[in-house]
Amino acid sequence: MVDISMIRGTAAKAAASLVGALALLVGGAVTAPVDAQAAAPLGRVCMFEAPDGAYGLGHAAFAVKVRGEANHWIYGSFGSLNDAPKAGWIKGGTWEQARSHFTSVRDQDHGGARYYTRYRCVNTKDGDVKRAQSWYGAVKGRGYNAIDNNCLHMSMAVFKGYSEVLRNDSRLPSATRRTPDDYFEKVLPAAHWETAHSL
Questions:
Q1: How high is the pLDDT of residue 40?
Q2: Which of 151, 155, 132 is nearest to 85 (CA)?
Q3: Is the confidence at residue 23, as pLDDT, over 60?
């Protein structure tokens, strides 16, 4: 024989659990899974490169994305006569503006041909633009020196200032005793940066 009181007790408990769950959901204690788009945005850095710069050793420039903003970048370079001022420059703008700037620079030593011709990028889990700008200022403050404080030093300082992940990546060695061409063609691919894009 079926015990009616037992069935009523079980039904009452189930109803109470359902009401409790609904109350928590309405009250905000239980939330739906976070949408993937709401997750913390990735950082992103790009090195622009002029292979024929510096008498064929190459010239490097940088761009870093402002995390949390849909399309705002900080970009610049250090020590190029083609991309004045030689002492260094830094700007802010959209990706399209950054790319357009590097596309528009002309090589004064080679009949006005396009100076920057390629770039590589990589995403980062972190990104601090204020810190990147601080590192830019530190390198610029030391003054341009072709041996140990040049455009490649500047770009890598900005990238490593921006991202602790990149700062601690052993695959990204010091820029000293390396040319921008060598770093762009060998070091960045070995550190799993993206395939080179043409400008």
A1: 56
A2: 151
A3: no
Residues 88, 79: Cα–Cα separation, whole Å: 6
Is residue 183 within 8 Å of 175, Cβ to Cβ?
A: yes
Upper half-sphere CA count for residue 118 (Cβ side, 13 Å): 15
Task: State the first-to-last Cα distance of the chain, in angstroms, to the nearest integer.
Answer: 83
Chain segment 138-171, per-residue pLDDT in tens: 999 999 988 999 999 999 999 999 999 999 999 9
Query: Which pair of tokens denotes residue 70?
Result: 């849909």
Q: What is the pTM of this model?
A: 0.78
Q: Give the span between the Cα atoms of 60 and 183, in whole angstroms.
A: 9
Q: Please state whether the peptide bond connecting residue 85 to the residue before it is cis, i.e. omega within 30 degrees of 0.
A: yes
3-class SS letters over 79-123? CCCCCCCCCCEEEEECHHHHHHHHHHCEECCCCCEECCCEEEEEE
Q: What is the dihedral of CA 178, 183, 188, 191, to 10 degrees?
A: -20
* CB atoms closer than 10 angstroms to residue 175: 22
Going by C-alpha positions, the residue among 54, 48, 51 that lies closest to residue 75 is 48
Phi, psi of 154 (to 5 degrees): -60, -50
